[in-house]
Structures are given as structure tokens and as C-alpha cells.
Amino acid sequence: MRTFDALDDSGGGHCSPLQLKRRELTMPPTPNSSLYFDVLPRDAPKLQDCFSCTDTMIDLQSVPLSGGILVETIACSLDPYMRNRMRPVNEPGDMPAFPLGEVLNGFSVGVVIRSETTDFAAGQHVYGFMPYRKYNVFGACDGASVSTPMGTLKILANPYNLPWRYFVGILGMSGQTAYYGLKDVSDPKPGETIFVSAAAGAVGQVVVQLAKAMGLRVIASCGSIEKEKMLKKLGADHVINRHTSSISEELKKYGPIDIYFDNVGGATLEAAISSAAMNARFRIKIEALVVTDWHEKYAEEFYDVMQQKVASGEIKYREHVYCGLKHGGQGMADLMTGKNIGKAVIVLDGKWLS
Ligand SMILES: NC(=O)c1ccc[n+]([C@@H]2O[C@H](COP(=O)([O-])OP(=O)(O)OC[C@H]3O[C@@H](n4cnc5c(N)ncnc54)[C@H](OP(=O)(O)O)[C@@H]3O)[C@@H](O)[C@H]2O)c1
């Protein structure tokens, strides 16, 4: 059972009763869908059953902004780290748990449709942590221009006019992880061999292409024939299907490896360790904080370089798009079972797909 929250309040601030009446007549309230986290995965038969999507109503013209902004969400990211947030709130973890019965949150991109602060203007596009809800109000708060569930919103520049949803994928955390992780941690040299797991996923597909462009020999693993084909097209020198071949046997044949870009851990990591060349370098830290730690050093360069590479077609980008928040639960379940090909993303409305 959902109750109406502040966003559903169609009170009109300083409007006169006549103005309010006129607005009611001209602007009917708009449905505002939200993706809720309802059940812990251990208590649900399937991961998709842990979520529900519910519409409330919002008056976009008159919803109070309290000195902040009203943002229409364009796209919400689906990421593996979110699985760790689906735990009881009293269990500690790197990131706060998702409270049961509340709207999910995570990396999102949106467009400002009204603003009461000089820090943001209507029409600007913003990126950051937002509730997975079609329309969000971020009120003003002390010390920061607006208050979001975690951190601040970044105003995006899009010089090549790329689809805005890319900013939660190849131009967001996934691309940044690939770029920073390969460039900084992996320190690759032409001629070296890199092994990339979950290589057809959001991070992996970017690592494969950047590594090829740097002159590396790329071994890629994935979980389906379609992904194998995609990775061969992207230039991987050898592709391992983890369901039909033994990763350790294949690495014995095609290794040793100098760098392992680990996207999955577990048995694949063990197989990679046993195929390491002398002085191999592995990315074994898998946490969102790592990517944010590199922003100061590389974010500006990342946006310059990656936007240009994507716009020119030098780097290809494949997405697995779920259109509408109501498909978010299924998207999460697919991600955890490897059904996504490319970056898993929820696009809120078909109008953002062109
Ligand atoms: N360090 C950081 O700051 C940072 C930032 C972002 C992401 N990451 C990490 O990078 C990794 C990749 O993220 P992503 O967004 O690119 O996800 P993704 O690769 O798009 O999706 C996850 C993939 O993992 C594979 N997989 C799922 N279950 C598996 C299992 N039991 N064993 C082996 N493989 C399994 C599946 O691919 P196949 O079936 O094709 O193998 C699935 O498609 C994740 O571990 C994520 O947490 C780290």
C-alpha cells in the first residue's frame, strides 16, 4: 500500500485560489511512477518479485520545490553492486542497504524541468544518485544547492549530442570504471595479454575495446553464444564461453596473462590467478568507492576522451534497455543471471530512445 508523499502534494505555494483553479483546469496531474524495493531476495522466489512499480500523481506546475529543482528522470542504471544493498538495513555494508517499502535509488540521468535555485536552470541535464522515480523534487539544503539521497548532482555537458541515457553507462560509472581501471590500475603495455571477465557487460565491453586500441592481446569471457559473437566483432582475440568451456583450461592454452580485469570474482578469479604471468597485475577491488576515488584525477579527461570516441564510432556501445520502471525488477534479475548483453539500463520513456 503506497501513501502519497510530498511529491504528490499539488498545493500551489504563493498562487491565488483563482490561479490554482486555472492550473487545475489546464494541467491535470501527471502519473509519477516509482520502483519500490518490497522484499529481501532471500524471502522471494525470484529476484524480480522483490520489486514493484506504482504510480502516484504529481502536478508538475505547482509541486512545491522548497528552493530546489524538479527533475524528470531519463534513465536509471542497473548495476551489480545494487545486489549488496538488498539486505536488512541493520546489516553493515559498503553502501547503505535499501530499506524495504522505499523507492530504489542509484545512478540516474535526468533533465531539470523547473528550478528555484540559481545553481540549476530548466533544460539542464543532471547526473547523480536519484530515487528511481519518474519525477523527483530535490529541495535546497544547507551547504549544498540541492539535497539528493547521496551526494550532489552534476550538470552534464554533451558536446556531441549523444543520447542522454549514455551518461549512466559508457559515459557514467561503467565507462569510468573501465577507463580508470585499465589506464591507472592495469598500466597496460602494447603486446601484453589481458583477460577480461563478463566482457560483454557494461564495463567489460569498454575494457575490451580500449585494450585492443592500446595494442593488447585480449582474452574475453562471457556467458552466451550471442555475447561470444559480439566480443569477436569488438576485436577480442580469444573468447571463452563460461558455460561451455573451462576457463582455467582455456587460459592454460591461450595464457599466460599479464593483466586480469576482474568483473566477477569467484572461480574465474581463481582460474586467472593460476594463469598469471610473472609480474601480472589484477584488478581485484570491486567497489563503487574505487571509481569515485579516481574522479578528481581523471573525470575531465574521461568525459573529453570517451565522448569523442563514442561520437566518432571508435568505441561501440551496446545497451540492454528496459523501457519503463515497471521492467526494472526483471532487469535486475536478468543482470544477476547474465541475461543482459551490454549495459543494463532502465529508460523511463520511449521518447528517450532516439
Ligand atoms: N570498482 C568499481 O568502482 C566498480 C564500478 C562499476 C562496476 N564494478 C564491478 O564491475 C563488474 C561488472 O559490472 P557491470 O556493470 O559491467 O556488470 P555486467 O557485466 O553488465 O553484468 C554482470 C555480468 O556478470 C556475469 N555474471 C553474472 N553472474 C555470474 C556468475 N555467477 N559467475 C560469473 N559471471 C557472472 C554475467 O555475464 P556473463 O554471463 O556474460 O559472464 C553478467 O552479465 C561488477 O562486479 C561490478 O560490481 C566495479
Automatic annotation (TrEMBL):
Domain Enoyl reductase (ER), residue spans: 83-346
Gene Ontology molecular function: oxidoreductase activity, acting on the CH-CH group of donors, NAD or NADP as acceptor
Name of this protein: Enoyl reductase (ER) domain-containing protein
PANTHER family: PROSTAGLANDIN REDUCTASE, PROSTAGLANDIN REDUCTASE 1
Keywords: Oxidoreductase
Matches recorded under Gene3D superfamilies: Medium-chain alcohol dehydrogenases, catalytic domain (3.90.180.10), NAD(P)-binding Rossmann-like Domain (3.40.50.720)
Superkingdom to which the source organism belongs: Eukaryota
Keyword hit for Oxidoreductase: yes
Membrane found in the keyword field: no
SMART domains, per database record: PKS_ER
Organism: Dentipellis fragilis
